[in-house]
Amino acid sequence: MSRTIATRDGVSLFVHEIGTGAPVLVLHGGPAAHHDYLLPGFARLADRFRLIFYDQRGGGRSRVEPGVDLSLAAHLGDVAAVLDAHDLPRAHLCGYSFGGFLAMLFAARNPARVDRLALASSAPPHQGYRAALDRALAVAQSSDWVAAERDALERSGLRETLPEEYRRRRFALSVAGYFGDPRLAYALTPFRVQARAAEVLRAELADRDFTSELDGLDGGRVLFLHGDRDPIDASLLEAVARRIGARFEGLAGAGHVPYVEAPDRFFSILREFLGARP
């Protein structure tokens, strides 16, 4: 079921809901991407959980006009707005990548609204990881395999004969560096990032460190899931987990997209964690 909900400042957020059971609000990454690329992967949980996705303001089908507030405070307010729109005083929260950062900060500031907090391939609570991430992606994207695949694609004739398939493959090659095995990038649902909205948030967060805010989290209700080949250094998230006494699960061989790269292990751990008695 899909619909739009209105925030207090008049932004229309696109919301998509599947499944039945305990409610889980799922926050996609980006910033300024959209929820589509978490599917069909996360649908594996829909047999037992009520999964609520939404496109964060400024991205996907939650586009906004110039001048609309795209700040971190506005994004955190939207998490509450989505919960309110579904009459949920409290729910599980699952954040992926940048959505993990949003989820952990929302939970720290609104502990009464979050049952269990699952953080998948999460961004750390500071921007100090960005330089190393950019270097790792640059190396991966210049690999012989990516270069050969790009060359083969350009010689394939798909640009003229099957343009949609051509765009899908171009997208996969543009994100191959996020995967432990770059061939698995072809299995990821394509997405787009709205540059203007992303730049606003990145500029706001550039020099800020929110680590100390997480100290109030109940670590017994927090799970980190992170691939050991993720270009976001897993040790940064493991350090946060140790700091708050949370559970950290490393996924061997997986990069930044473990729900595609190691789905059986990823969803088994996530299902057990979310299904445990709060």
Describe the secondary-structure layout:
Layout: E1 2-6, E2 12-18, E3 22-27, E4 49-54, H1 72-85, E5 91-96, H2 98-109, E6 114-120, H3 130-141, H4 144-155, H5 158-161, H6 163-174, H7 195-205, E7 222-227, H8 234-244, E8 247-251, H9 258-261, H10 263-275
Parallel strand pairs: 3-4, 3-5, 5-6, 6-7, 7-8
Antiparallel strand pairs: 1-2, 2-4
Helix pairs in contact: 1-2, 4-6
Describe the 3D structure:
The protein is an alpha/beta fold and 278 residues long. It has two domains: 2-132 and 193-275, Rossmann fold (3-Layer(aba) Sandwich), CATH 3.40.50; 134-187, no CATH class. It has helices at residues 72-85, 98-109, 130-141, 144-155, 158-161, 163-174, 195-205, 234-244, 258-261, 263-275, and strands at 2-6, 12-18, 22-27, 49-54, 91-96, 114-120, 222-227, 247-251. Strands 1-2-4-3-5-6-7-8 form an eight-stranded mixed β-sheet, sandwiched between helices. Helix 8 links the parallel strand 7 (222-227) and strand 8 (247-251). Helix 1 packs across helix 2 and helix 4 (144-155) packs antiparallel against helix 6. The longest helix has 14 residues, at 72-85. The mean pLDDT is 96.
